[in-house]
């Protein structure tokens, strides 16, 4: 398919049904979208239209108010966004949906990614037959929501060794004690997937903890500078009792978490590629619309330079992720590749966001013009799913054979 047949998003305010085809090239310079088969390509275009026309314009106000647009969930479900993990989609298609979602709004793309990679994926791969039957159909159409509860107040980067939440077996039940921090959607979810250390054998296990269990409380974390639509929460677990049937039988130790995190790190790489396309969309539109010194900004060399740099960063990220999807599809993905992709694409995204913000001048300082919203969101991509530094250390360890995570060792 030629580039021009792949529609280019425009800013919500300038997009109308009578908007003529832009005279400039589409952003798919590396022909990545063309790698999809025709059915997936068509489906992606429909999803892109929904995300650009419906979700993106609404997201700005919800982001400013730190609220979640619950009314959009049924529409997101109607476009299959709740079921990507198990509907037979190719890794490339799923990745490009994550790209288009992040291009429209990073918070809602986080909702879609965590839901698919870490909730549906975890229950599908590691849950019991009964757990799958009970939760997967409702998760698939967003009538049920889950949260992924791994990080703790005192253990972020060192969670693998430091995880302090405990689970103690008492007869046919488990008693869970501890605290979790930063848990996405926990205030609105039906359940959290809680990672806890078995007090008898010291191994990490995982449990479905329904939000109405006595002793479970989730408190929203406010005043975030990014991902403001996502309702992140502090969770307290005070002698919460769950039946043995709520334990995920596939989780025997932390290796299960690492396997999930490998793929969810790849998802953040797609998010980083997508947000850079969003940054480019906004920057190019602004440069064409705004005039100074009697000329459109886009006519100045020093404005075309950051536009070219942002697009170059976005394409480098997209191409890297497309190669990662090829490895994913062959079943050979290793943590070092996911960590390298996540750290590299988020580093580039941070650079692109800074250039995009500067290009909007003063209007890059207010979220009304969208760019500042993306500028804040990129900071979260840089930090969650393993910080930039931790993912770089994973790469460094693989390349030198020396683990540098703990100083003095
Ligand atoms: C918006 C948001 C959403 C999130 N959503 C979820 C979620 O849904 N579920 C979930 O379980 N978690 C979630 N997280 C948690 C996230 O994964 C952690 O924030 C992240 O792993 C970092 O942990 P930390 O914040 O405790 O930072 P720390 O581990 O305290 O790190 C602080 C700084 O020290 C650096 N550092 C730490 N150790 C080393 C080292 N050995 N060498 C060099 N530098 C080091 C880090 O890179 C960082 O710069 C979310 C976080 C955010 C901000």
TrEMBL record:
Acyl-CoA dehydrogenase/oxidase N-terminal domain mapped to chain residues: 46-139
Residue span of region Disordered: 1-22
Keyword Cytoplasm: no
Polar residues bias (residue ranges): 1-20
Domain Acyl-CoA oxidase/dehydrogenase middle intervals: 147-239
Pfam family, one: Acyl-CoA_dh_N
GO function terms (MF aspect): acyl-CoA dehydrogenase activity; flavin adenine dinucleotide binding
GO biological process, one term: fatty acid beta-oxidation
Domain Acyl-CoA dehydrogenase/oxidase C-terminal: from-to ranges: 254-399
Keywords assigned by UniProt, alphabetized: FAD, Flavoprotein, Oxidoreductase
Required co-factors: FAD
Entry's family note: Belongs to the acyl-CoA dehydrogenase family.
Protein name in the entry: Acyl-CoA dehydrogenase domain-containing protein
Species name: Paeniglutamicibacter gangotriensis Lz1y
Phylogenetic classification of the source organism: Bacteria, Bacillati, Actinomycetota, Actinomycetes, Micrococcales
